[in-house]
Amino acid sequence: MARKEEMRVADIANSNGIKVMVIDDSNTIRKSAEIFLVQAGYQVILAEDGFDALTKIADYLPDVIFCDILMPRLDGYQTCALIKKNQRLANTPVIMLSSKDGLFDRARGRMVGSDEYLTKPFTKDSLLKTVAAHTAAPDRT
């Protein structure tokens, strides 16, 4: 049953058309982010780890991706690097999510191509501001 929920894409009647993916092994983080984003009118794709995300990214082509760092099987750094190496996805903003807020963690995120670093627990305001900042850029198509 939980698996079915994870694969669901939130369809919003008055959607602004922006698709946001949240990759996190914590059900609580995924659900919190989903609630905040859906209330703001975004379409949301949820993934519980990097492997799950990579299969869904090809199907849904999200406009912004939030990626937890510490996940089983394929961590956030590896997931981000694979996303950024794909020519079709290289310009998709990837925001790293972590409860770790050290300089090393931020630098490592930049090294694999992340566009920003958001510390958990995040607020609704910080999440929505981050999405807005990365979807309002003039070079986004």
Report the portion of residues in β strands.
15-25%
What is the helix fraction of residues, given as a range?
A: 40-55%
The count of strands amounts to 5
What class, by secondary structure content? Answer: alpha/beta
Largest sheet: 5 strands, parallel
How would the global form be characterised?
globular
Query: What's the number of structural domains?
Result: 1
CATH architecture: 3-Layer(aba) Sandwich
Cross-sheet strand order for the largest sheet = 2-1-3-4-5
Output the CATH class name.
Alpha Beta
Q: CATH homologous superfamily?
A: Response regulator
The CATH topology corresponds to Rossmann fold
Low-pLDDT windows of residues: 1-15
Per DSSP, the total helix count is 6
How many angstroms does the end-to-end distance come to?
Answer: 36 Å
Mean pLDDT: 86
Report the C-alpha radius of gyration, rounded. 14 Å
Order of helices and strands: HEHEHEHEHEH
List keywords for this structure.
141 residues, alpha/beta, disordered N terminus
Concise summary:
With 141 residues, the chain is an alpha/beta fold. It has helices spanning 2-7, 27-39, 50-60, 76-85, 103-111, 124-135, and strands at 19-23, 43-47, 64-68, 94-98, 116-119. It has a five-stranded parallel beta sheet with strand order 2-1-3-4-5, sandwiched between helices.
